[in-house]
Amino acid sequence: MDPTKHDDFSVDLNNPELWAHPRAFLDVWDTLHPWFEMRGYILYPRDPNYCYTPRPGEGEPYNLPEETLEYPFAQTLRGDEYYRSFSAKVGLWVAVDSKHRDVVIKTVPSDYDELAIARKLSTEPMKSDPHNCIVPVLEVLQFNAEFSFIIMPRWSAIPYTNGDVFDCLETSFCFTLHMLQALAFLHENGIVHRDISFRNVLVNCNGYTEHIPPVSLRPDDKWQPRFVLCDFDISVIFPPDIPPSERVLPASETSWGELSFHPQDVSDGDATYDPFAFDVACMGAMLCIAIGPTTKAVPLLAPFLDRMITPHISSRYTASEALDAFTEIMRTLSQEFLRQTPAPPFVNIRGAWQNHDRWDGLPDDFVKEHLGPEGPVRPRRKKVSYSPDGSMSSVWVEWDVPIPLPY
Asked: Which of 103, 135, 154 is the last residue of a domain?
């Protein structure tokens, strides 16, 4: 059998029923086992409950790697019974390579920008750029004219349902720095992510998920955390010859992605929006969760976060400006300070970026120096109501209107 051919496997990835539910995709992956094995990857097996935990045994391909794993592969922070388990996801599977290293395989249509982005960011000198805090791509396998598979090392998601993911200030500031580097890197290469949220952040370790008690992400002599953005399903890459003024997208597409972090950039009825500025505000909303509770200890974070999420788009940081500003803040912090435990996390992380007053308790002279006559940033919020017939209506209200958030 010719390993360069795929015609030996009759898999129709264009069947829309396959994309309707994770279980509908299971038979596809079963069929693809030999196709991937000829290319050096052994897919995880599955049990009747659609959960996948290969139990390593002597001589089996699912044994743990014998050598210490180095970048881009993740360090194992838990026992094998945890870090190899997996639940079915549409178009996504896990496997091990010939050296028993865990990888993730993602099915991507050939006409998606995600595939072009993966090819672009996995080339030199992109891979060696220190600001490339994007999930690494090991290789791209073309299945047919319509679909390809992106092979990535298996890193863990961080538990976006909790606020206690950061067990020291160094970790939360490392997270912030890496996210800003990732965004600046993408924007410099004409790429907008459009779905920035905790659920699309990975860290270079295995065995750390929202479903089990967290392990420490505190840096030490053996391991340094590296946080990366992932999931480019709805991302867009603009050709380099398009001027910035024309890099816009339809306003209707602002409803795509993680809505709870979205700014109201088109609330006045705009037909298009600037996705680069939109990305910055979404990133700012996420960082309000990550480092917002720290503003009393580091007051400069208050005006920094305000500039990221301000509804005045012309005054909003660009991604590179935000990175430069945060780098300057980092220079004022000592290692002793960064080893401290963070302030208590927010209880409701989804609405906290709008609810939290970053300026509360800061010195009066600092507030007067950094807050102009407009006052702190208070994004408008969306009040949703339902009529008896089930129809929904919404209205934008200002910060000082006391309404419950619809999260």
From this structure: 154
Q: What is the pLDDT of residue 151?
A: 97
Helix (H) or strand (E) holding 284: helix 275-291
This prediction's pTM: 0.87
Classify residue 263 as left (phi > 0), alpha (psi -120 to 50) or beta.
beta
Among 98, 130, 154, the domain boundary falls at 154
Indicate the number of domains in the chain.
2
Claim to verify: residue 264 and residue 119 sit in the same structural domain: no
Cα separation, 73 vs 83, whole angstroms = 13
Residue 66 pLDDT level (bands cut at 50, 70, 90):
confident
Residue 403 makes CB contacts below 8 A (sequence gap 6+) with: 381, 383, 397
Nearest to 206 by CA among 86, 113, 125: 86
Query: Tokens 């945060």 appear where?
Result: 326
- Token pair, residue 57, equals 């045994």
pLDDT at 48: 72
Residue 407 belongs to a domain: no
